[in-house]
Amino acid sequence: MTAGDGRARLAVLLAALAPLLIWPLGHGRLLHPGPVAAGALFCAVLLASMPGRGLRLSAWLLLLLLPSTLAWTATVAVTGVGPSLASLESLTAGAYREVIDAAGLALRLPSFGVVGLLTIGSVWLALRLARGCRPARGGPVAALFLVTLLPLLLVVHDARWGRELSRWLGPEAHISVPVLFQLGSAKSLLSETLDRAILPDNRLAKLPRDATTARVDYQAEPGVAIFLVGESLRADALLRPGRGRASDALAERLASGLGQRLPDACAGGNGTFVSVPKLITAATSPDPALADGQPTLLALAKAAGARTAYVNNHEIWVVPEAGHDWQQKLSSSYFSASDEQAIAVVEDFVQRTRAPTRAALVHLYGQHFPYHERYPAGLFPSEPAGLSGSALDELRYQRAAEFGTQLLLRLARFMDGLAEPAYLVFTSDHGENLASDGTGKQFHAGPVNGRHDTTVPVLVLWNRAFADSGRPQRLAALARQAPPLAHRDVAAAWLHLLGAPGPLAPTEPVLTWGAAQPGDRPGVLPCTALGP
After folding, report:
1. Could you list the residue ranges that cross the membrane (predicted)?
2. What confidence tens digit (pLDDT) does each residue in 520-530 have?
3. How high is the pLDDT of residue 100?
């Protein structure tokens, strides 16, 4: 091995390891740092020991993978954990504003700036040195390459001995080491592409929804029924004592008998694109793919005789459904509307529509990051001087939650002005991780489900006419249930208050979709198994 060859191999080794600096420099926590470090070193040695011109191939590969590596680094910097398929869903589904917001958060973090620049610089140096040297073709370098190549192939292809090595490395390494994550993602993408090509009608296909095709065998009871789906509101962020006047006023309303907070629910996942389709279709299966094509609860209300309004304050339709009387989307990839506008649309629909029963389904932007964009700037006092980082994020999150409470109160008081029975059911699509939890995780849609990003509040509010109708008694079984409720029970409660027949019984066992440990494949997960 020549001196130039040695320098080039060392540069490739360091370039492959550079992104891993995000773990000690960021706020994320590794459960098993030893196996993760071993996996990272294993991949780096493989790239650096490529014989002959393969070394240049390694350097070019690092350059080609640089955008993916920086995206991986940004994800760890922002969320404290490796990427997940759920976190990529926003991009593939077209929610570009969420991706841009997340990128903006990463660019403001010093840890990402330092590691990103080191990664770019080390890749550039590795490519320059590899192109300017004569790499060794055989000897110890080739032997080292073969020693590391065979186990990696066994791991990627899930061969017999590879499974043993995978168990030794642990699943956490597969999302905590960029090269392993990129190999696993490529394998999954190839497998899904082949599935779609060979079986175009399989369950991976997105099926269209049309509300006019839904059928039920009951008649909706007269009045107004509203189902509100919030965003990123964790269970302990609703009705927080002493946070603001709205929370205090809402607590007083519940004490007066004009509403009820039900036991907290376990969301169907910790990401919007997993949980919302299952929630608003009251899906009985925890598998999100099986909710595709099923009618929403609003379609069932329409089939029962209600005039319906579908209001969406997200930049895309997470669950598009044609055939409703009113259909309005407020936010876009370029403009994020306040949830106050969505509430105004619902009020307008109720006032303008002449029908015995009116039903509305509303998907709010809620408390989704960036938190300070979710409430009017002048609504709260100036932010305390010197507050920054996670402390500032949490102040803004609680202010966003308080503003959301104001909107719930506004809609409740609007219902108070109606002579007919009116009620609303509110829950969130998923929760949120905050720095004060001490888990090293932030935000949501990560590869590991936890109590904070999966447990959500459930609130039912009604007017006096609805209270006098006796219909709130239908919630008794859910109110007595020990938490958590199944998320689908929240949708079922809305339908039963509307007039769906039969007893409203809690679902058991309560299941979600995701992973309990880093690197585990998403699947059915008991909510009782969720950690912090």
Report:
1. 7-25, 31-48, 60-85, 105-127, 139-157
2. 888 999 999 89
3. 81
Whole-prediction pTM: 0.86
What is the residue type of 368?
H
Q: Give residue for tokens 């306040």.
A: 338
Q: How far apart are the first and last CA of the chain?
A: 50
Q: Which of 457, 440, 456 is nearest to 448 (CA)?
A: 440
Distance from C-alpha of 28 to C-alpha of 25, rounded to nearest angstrom: 9
Query: How many whole angstroms separate alpha carbon 115 and alpha carbon 106?
Result: 11
CATH assignment at residue 267: 3.40.720.10
> What are the tokens at 191?
């497998």
Domain count, the chain: 2
430: CB partners within 8 A, 6+ apart:
232, 267, 269, 270, 271, 272, 275, 444, 445, 453, 454, 456
* Token pair for 348: 């307008």
Tell me the pLDDT of the chain averaged across its residues: 87
For the record, the structure tokens of 254 come out as 């519940």
Residues 267/450, Cβ–Cβ less than 8 Å: no
What's the rounded Cα separation, in Å, for the pair 275 and 477?
Answer: 24
Check if the beta carbon of residue 12 is closer than 8 Å to that of residue 62: yes
State the amino acid at position 49 in one-letter form: S
Rounded CA separation 504/499 (Å)? 11
Q: How many CB atoms lie within 10 A of CB 476?
A: 12
Distance in angstroms (rounded) separating the CA atoms of residues 490 and 274:
16
Beta bridge partners of 426: 228, 459
What is the spatial distance between Cα 238 and Cα 404, in angstroms, rounded to a whole number?
9
Instruction: Provide CB contacts within 8 A for 385, sequence distance 6+.
Output: none
> Is there a single domain that holds both residue 232 and residue 144?
no
**Angstrom distance (rounded) from CA 324 to CA 328:** 10
Range of the domain at 284: 224-380+420-502
Residues 166, 291, single domain; the answer is no
Angle at 83 between CA 292 and CA 27, to 5 degrees: 135
Q: Which of 527, 526, 505, 523 is nearest to 514 (CA)?
A: 523
- The percentage of residues in the chain with a pLDDT greater than 90, rounded to a whole number, is 56
Q: What angle do CA 212, 277, 408 make, to 5 degrees?
A: 95
> How far is Cα 5 from Cα 11, in angstroms, rounded to an integer?
10
Greatest C-alpha distance within the chain: 89
- Tell me: do 240 and 189 sit in the same domain: no
- pLDDT-derived band at 186 (thresholds 50, 70, 90) equals confident
In the predicted model, is pLDDT for residue 154 greater than 60?
Answer: no
79 and 182 part of one domain: yes
The residue with greater pLDDT, 332 or 276, is: 276
SS3 call for 444: coil
- Cα–Cα–Cα angle for 257, 263, 268, rounded to 5 degrees: 130
Give the pLDDT score at 354. Answer: 94
The DSSP letter of residue 72 is H
Structure tokens at 428: 């969130």
